Every structure is written in structure tokens, then in C-alpha cells.
Amino acid sequence: MIIQDVLSDAFFAAIAGIGFGAISNPPVKAFPYIALLAAVGHATRYFLMTFAGIDIATASLAGAFVIGMGSLWLGKKIYSPMTVLYIPALLPMIPGKFAYNVVFSLIMLLQSMDEQAEKIKYMDMFFSNSVIAVTVIFMLAVGATFPLFLFPKRAYSLTRHKK
């Protein structure tokens, strides 16, 4: 059952990665790699959160690191910069539920300014969802770019010819 859940998550992340890749117009040869990176990265995060009990920020960091390392390795195969591969692959990992709840709680907060209990409830909801969304997005950026700092020569050479 665990394998089926992880593979299902990976499949839908791959489809989303391809969709996000399509709007950024990468080379056609990059699409299978974008799908693979999105699937592996999102499945990593899903597995860590669901079966290892790790929080969403740390699991997102691990998933983004997997995507970053994969884009460093696969970028050489298609002669493409890391960002062409890792940005569309990361987008399915954006915490949409938390971002939606930030906007929802802000609207509800503004509509309940006369009721103190409701105002406190929505203010708490706004801040907790904001912290989670911002932290996860930050961890995604850190995890995906960390391989660039670990292997700067390799990252620089992705689109350079050997001399």
C-alpha cells in the first residue's frame, strides 16, 4: 500500500511538472527529465511526511534537494541549465493549501472586525498559514539551489563545451 501511494503521488506530480514546464517553454527534450524530477522530489516529500512523520518544511527541503541534485546531474545530459529543470519540477511542491488559507483568513479577518473572537481566530489562522507557506517556499529555494553551491564547477559547466 505504501508503494502504491508513493507512486500515485509521483505520477500526479510528474503531470503537474510537465504542465508547469509547458508554460515556461523549455526544450522538448527536457520534459521527461522535468517529469522525473517532479515525481521523485514530490514523492520524497510525500514519503517523509506521511510515513516518516517529518514536518512539511523539512520534507520540502529534502525533496527540493533531491530535485536540485537531479537537475545538476540530468542538466548535463540535455545540455541545459539547472533552472530549466528544477523550477517546473519544484512548482507542484508549492504549498497551495496554506497560501489559499492565508488569503481566505485575511478576507474573513477583514469581514469580522467587529467580533473580537472571530477576529482573533482569523488572525491566528492568517499568521500560522503565512509562516508555513513562507517557510516551505524558502526551504524549496534553499534545497534546490544548495547543489549549485556544493558543485559550482559542475553547475557552471552544464552549458559549456569542454576545452
Concise synopsis of the structure shown:
Helices cover 80% and strands 0% of the residues. It contains seven helices and no strands. It is elongated.
What features would you highlight for this structure?
163 residues; elongated; mainly alpha
In angstroms, what separates the terminal alpha carbons?
50 Å
Q: What is the average of the pLDDT values?
A: 93
Helix content: over 70%
What string gives the helices and strands in order?
HHHHHHH
Total beta strands: 0
Shape: elongated
Radius of gyration: 18 Å
State the low-pLDDT regions, or none.
none
Strand content: under 5%
- Total helical segments: 7
How would you characterize the largest beta sheet? none
Give the class from helix and strand content and strand pairing: mainly alpha
Describe this entry's structure for a reader.
This protein is mainly alpha-helical. Helices cover 80% and strands 0% of the residues. It has seven helices and no strands. It has helices at residues 2-24, 31-50, 56-78, 82-90, 96-111, 116-150, 152-156. The radius of gyration is 18 Å and the shape is elongated. The mean pLDDT is 93.
